[in-house]
Amino acid sequence: MIIGEIEKALEEIRPMLARHLGNIEFVEFKEGTVYVRLLGTCHGCPLSQLTLKAGVEELLKSKILEVIRVEAV
Length: 73
Prior knowledge:
The protein is of the alpha+beta class. Helix content is 45%, strand content 29%.
């Protein structure tokens, strides 16, 4: 159930990332941490940590109480 909620929230983020030729992939949810993989131009981008923390993490935490943090793998 939580994984479905995470996937749904990530769908909201994908259009923003796609505008910059990037994407995000859900990898795992474990002990409050969502693990994702940044794809396309997002992978290795100097601003990827900002996108991850200020964008992805804040959105997921606001929508899903069980989410404590988001980490890229």
